[in-house]
Structure formats: C-alpha cells, structure tokens
Design goal:
There is one protein chain. The chain is mainly α. It contains 19 helices and no strands. The two termini are 25 Å apart.
Length: 489
C-alpha cells in the first residue's frame, strides 16, 4: 500500500486544490460573471461532451490499464499502445460523418426548448474527442505509475484555466460567448500537454499491427464502452434531460448543487487513479486474500475521509447557500440527495476496479445499461413534476440501485467483502455528529460561521474516529505524526 498511499495522498491534495478552485468558480464566479444562462450553457456543453466521450474513446483508457501488464516484451507493449491510440478513429470518424449528415435534425431536437444552445452544438463532439484522447493518454501515464501529472491537469489545470477565463470576462477581455469557445480550446490544450508528457515517459513507436489477443481486447472494450456510458450518463445525463424539459437556467441551479455534492467523491477519484492498476495486477495474478485486504482497506479509508467531507458539507449547507444568488437556493435538497448517493458509492472502495478486471464484468455492465434506462425514465417522470429536485431523486435512486447491484455481485461471485464492524461504527458516528452540528449556526458572516463550525466538527470527527480506531491505517499515520511532534510517546 506504500505507493498507493503516496500517490493517493498527492492525488487527493491535487484534487482538493482543484475542487477548491472549482468551488470558487462554481459558487461565485460562474453565477456572477457569466450569469445563469451562459453558466448553464457551458455546463450543458461539457456534460454532453462527457456523455459521448466513452464512445469516442471506445473504452481504450480502461482497456489499456487492464491489458498492459499482461504483455511481456517492449515490442508487444509498444504495439498495444499504438492500438489504443489509433483504434478509436474507427468510431470517431464514422460518428462525426453521421452527425454531419443529420446535423439539422440533431440541432432541432437539442434546441427545441432552449434556442441558445443552437449555435454551440458543434462544440460538443469537439470537446468529446479531446476528453476521450486525454483519458487515453492519462491511462498511458497511469500504467507507468505516473498518475499525479495527469490528475493535476485534469483537476487543477482545467479549473485554473476556467478561472482565468472568467476573470477575462470580468475585465471585458472576452465576451460570455467567447468564454464558451475558449473553454473548448482549453480542453484541446490539455490533451496536447498530456499527450506530449506521456510520450516523454515512453517514446511511442506507432505500428499498424494489432495485438496478439485482439479478440479478448475487443470484447472487453465493447463492455467498457457500456460501462463508461453508464457511469457518465448517471453523472451528466440528468443535465441533458433538464435541457429538454426546463429553461436552461435550471441547469445552472442544478450544477451548483451537484458540484458541491461531488466533492464527497474526491477521495475515491484520487485513490482510484493508482489503485486501479494494482487491482488489475492482483486480479490477474489471482491473489484473492491480498485483494480482499485491499478491498476492505480502500472501503474503510474512503468511508472515513469521504464521511468527513460529506459531514462538513451537510452541516454547513445553509450558510453556504447564503453566498450564492437567492434563485439558487432550491438546490439544497439536491445536495443532500446527490451527496448520499456519492457516499454510498464511496464506501464500496475499489469495487469498480475489481469488477472490470474479472471475467464476470459483462453481467454487471448489462445491468448498468438497464439502470440507465431506468434513470432516463425516472427523470422524464419526475422532472416535469418536481423540477431539479425530481432529477436529483431519480439520480439518487438509480445510482443507489446500481451500487447495490455491484456490491452483491462482488460478494456472491468473488467472495470479496468490503465491510467490517468499523463500517457500521463510522456510519453511526457520522449520523450522530450530523444531528449535533446541523441544527444550529453561528450568527456571523457565512464564511466565518462555516470556518468555526467546521473547526469544531473536525475536532470531534477526528477525535472519535481515532478513539474508536475506525481505520487502523489512518490511525498509524496519525500516531506517526503525534510521535514526531511529541504529542504521544
């Protein structure tokens, strides 16, 4: 776990820095500098691009991680890397041609409720391709245990660029429309930077030959496309559906709430970058006991860290929403619903990495497709009735069912179990602290109130988690620093 903790720690710090920058953008700069309409527009374009990204990538980012360690010679690995970079063009080119042929029909469908999206539709496939190849070259770095750089570009670089562009809007260097176009350029530059860094780690020798186990690779890739599409539709599909039923400003209100809730998933995203290739190696070598230990460790560590983040958000949510324009306040319930779904997914540890590296992954992925259909159906039912709260409820229900199905699958088929008695203790402790801290606030400025309450909550959370030894690994790290500073012998 040494390299896992090392790079996971770095990735967590980087990701939280990125989320802090993104929080400034989301809570203040986007609503104030862009306004609800153009904030919603830019978010809709990025969400739509993220939904089609797995199809453009053809799952190569996950395929690369799974199969790279199975090739024994440099020549085989080089051939495989070439394959993962060139193969997506077999899908991208035909899809772009089809999109061009039916462009007017697509345009009419997507802009029937909000005409403002009409002139920006072409940015969706452009950004989608940039996202796809960024993920492929990011995976290239991860298999060489260089996950930190790509994570920095993804979490910090993109959000910093958005912040600079927003400042450009404020000083009238660019227009709000120019911001949307400039965002597309930023994603293209992120791709180029990541690509050249990946090439510096291992110089590419592109070949047109296919890898020796092409059939296994292609079968896995097909299901990974389904997996990526399921995950991204569950993440961003609701914003696409909102565009079809409600005025586009509602996407801005919904986006602020979901962004706040997504902070809960940061520890999982950070650890996943390095745990995924290690999981693939353990599964390939059939080391069941080591895999079971890793599963439990990732689960309780993520639950403890993620539970702290969720608690901090939930107990401060009312003061936090005093800092955004009043029309955004309807998103508070959205934060709770999306936050709970992320927390449940978080405590499953490296569940996804385990599933995607077994021969059983197809069944769960097909189940995921059914749940996407359920999500779309629930959104179509609840959005017209309850608006953005209905969309959040549909997402909560769908993600919870999907996560539960994956958990049961791993337990039954692989005899791997993530939970211990510490899991229950952690849930009870988090619930008690929520009740203690939620129902009162300091009567001060929102920022000061949030800081003071967070300090008190942090002291209580850290003390009780340490006292009851919720995570032995985290306790060991704390003991190390306590001894270093002579707090304990």
């Amino acid at each position: 776990m040494g390299i896992v903790l090392n790079q996971s720690f770095k990735n967590t710090i980087i990701t939280y820095i990125g989320f802090a920058i993104g929080g400034i953008n989301t809570i203040y700069l986007y609503p104030v500098f862009l306004g609800a309409t153009y904030y919603a527009l830019s978010n809709y374009i990025l969400s739509s691009a993220n939904v089609i990204m797995p199809i453009f990538a053809i799952g190569m980012q996950n395929t690369l991680v799974k199969f790279y360690s199975q090739y024994e010679t440099n020549e085989e690995r080089s051939r495989f890397l070439s394959f993962t970079v060139l193969f997506p063009f077999l899908i991208i080119i035909p899809m772009l041609l089809i999109g061009f042929y039916f462009f007017d029909d697509i345009l009419m469908f997507l802009s029937k409720k909000n005409i403002i999206v009409k002139k920006f539709i072409w940015l969706i496939p452009f950004i989608g391709v940039c996202m796809a190849y960024f993920e492929i070259f990011y995976a290239w770095l991860r298999v060489h245990m260089h996950s930190v750089f790509g994570n920095f570009i993804k979490e910090v670089g993109l959000r910093t660029a958005s912040l600079l562009l927003l400042m450009g809007v404020y000083y009238n260097w660019i227009t709000v429309e120019g911001f949307v176009y400039a965002t597309a350029v930023v994603y293209f530059l992120a791709l180029l930077v990541t690509m050249f860094y990946a090439f510096s780690i291992q110089k590419p020798v592109f070949q047109l030959e296919i890898p020796k186990n092409t059939k296994a690779v292609l079968v896995y890739t097909f299901y990974i496309i389904l997996s990526g599409s399921v995950a991204n539709l569950l993440l961003d599909g609701d914003k696409m559906i909102l565009n079809q039923y409600m005025n586009i400003e509602n996407i801005a209100y919904y986006s602020v709430a979901t962004y706040i809730a997504l902070v809960i998933s940061v520890p999982s995203r950070s650890m996943h970058q390095i745990v995924y290739p290690i999981t693939a190696k353990l599964m390939h070598e059939n080391k069941h006991d080591e895999m079971n230990i890793l599963y439990k460790k990732t689960s309780i560590n993520l639950q403890m860290v993620g539970g702290y983040v969720m608690l901090g958000i939930f107990v401060n949510i009312n003061k936090l929403y005093e800092m955004v324009p009043p029309e955004y306040a309807g998103g508070i319930m959205v934060v709770f619903m999306i936050g709970l779904s992320k927390y449940f997914d978080l405590i499953l540890g490296n569940n996804n990495a385990i599933i995607f590296n077994t021969k059983y992954y197809r069944t769960v992925l097909l189940l995921g497709v059914l749940l996407v259909v359920l999500t779309i159906g629930l959104n179509m039912i609840f959005i017209p009735i309850y608006g953005i709260i209905g969309s959040a409820f549909a997402t909560l229900l769908s993600i919870t069912l999907y996560s539960l199905a994956k958990l049961l699958f791993v337990v039954k088929k692989l005899d791997l179990y993530p939970f211990t008695k510490q899991t229950l203790y952690s849930i009870i402790l988090t619930l008690i602290l929520f009740v203690v801290f939620y129902f009162w606030d300091f009567p001060f400025n929102p920022i000061i109130s949030i800081i003071l309450k967070s300090i008190l909550m942090t002291i209580a959370y850290v003390y009780f988690n340490y006292r009851f030894a919720i995570s032995t690994e985290i306790n060991e790290v704390m003991d190390k620093y306590l001894k270093k500073f002579k707090v304990m012998k």
